[in-house]
Design brief:
The structure is a single chain. A hairpin with a 4-residue loop joins strand 10 and strand 11. The protein has 1 helix and 30 strands. The strands form 8 sheets. The chain has a 6-stranded antiparallel β-sheet with strand order 4-3-9-8-12-13, with no helix packed on it. The radius of gyration is 24 Å and the shape is flat. It starts with 24 loop residues before the first strand and ends with a strand. It is mostly beta strands. The protein has 3 domains: 177 residues, Immunoglobulin-like, CATH 2.60.40.1120; 104 residues, Immunoglobulin-like (Sandwich); 101 residues, Immunoglobulins (Immunoglobulin-like).
Length: 392
Amino acid sequence: MGAARMGSRPTDDLGRYRLAGLSPGDYLLAAVVGQIVGIQISADLPGYAATFFPGTVSAAEGQPVSVRAAQDVTGVDFSLVRIRTARMSGRATDAAGEPITGGIALMPSRRSAGILPATIGARIERDGRFEFTNVAPGEYVLQASRNRSAGWTEGESSSQFVIVNGVDVTDLEVRTSTGSTVDGRVVVEGGRAFSPGQLNVSPVPVDSDLSPLIGGGPAHATVDEDLRFHLAGLTGPRRLRVTRVPAGWTLQAILMNGIDITDTALPLGKPDQSLTDVEVVLSQRVTSITGRVTARGRPAAASVLFFAADRQAWYPQSRFFGQTMSRVDGGFRVDGLPPGEYLAAAVDAVPSIRDGDQWQDPDYLETLVALARRITLSEGASVALTLTVVER
């Protein structure tokens, strides 16, 4: 659904809005008032909740709006819903006790299944006092971040859960911490040397509530000439990922003290949870999948999806996901998926599968399981297959 790519636009003084440049797809529309959304300050009008088209406070009850290519959709009108809102305020300081004057945000907890058009910003004073106005009832995560000075560090951060039920929440104390560090090295078969920048290691968050990423995504460490890397400022459970690797190489394993932690959620956040001597092992035994896609007996351009047969591997940014587009002659190729059992499916290049990782939603994958082709990838193996576009 297009709503997975969040964005916002202000209305004019008559409440009219226009969202231009949308890709074809289904979009969930929401309107908010009396809040700071991104860098935009909406009208100070308390007592209204974030409202989803056609006029509900529940995202689950919102009706998606379909947008086709070169289509103008008009008349999508809806009214804000009245609700008792509250004020949330407190003071934020860094690990040294100095006031934080930026990088404070409020967002619905993922545990609440809440959706807002964007992160809510706060009014912040120079002494670190902050205030969120017109906060609707719900479960939230209050996050703060500062000192993100380089790509390999996430600086200092803080995260805490807050429940709002229509009563002001005051005197909150936010204090950031320096988090954990991860130090390691890359081990390659044959001792081949790589140039700096060819390898990249990143700690991917497992729980967005516990890993503040205000002002940027996860840290990324560029491996230096001696194949060592350093990550800092990490909080919340993470999985280490190799997000860039030279052609012809693939991740074989990530080890710590000889134990395989490749797909393990690692608890981070405190200095004593820091990791040292992590080994990222690369191999030249790269898997390869080639094939052709047909539809109604003819070659077809389609979105070709690969996902692990084991549902436990269906987590965000899993290395067991793969996607490519087949060419007009139906041909496709995917390299570097880890060994394992996979399901493969070719689907029409419809808006819900058009780009990004929207297709990785477990609910969507469940609809493909019975229609997908099962394949087995062993280390370094090459597999060829023919897929027929799934009819739904």
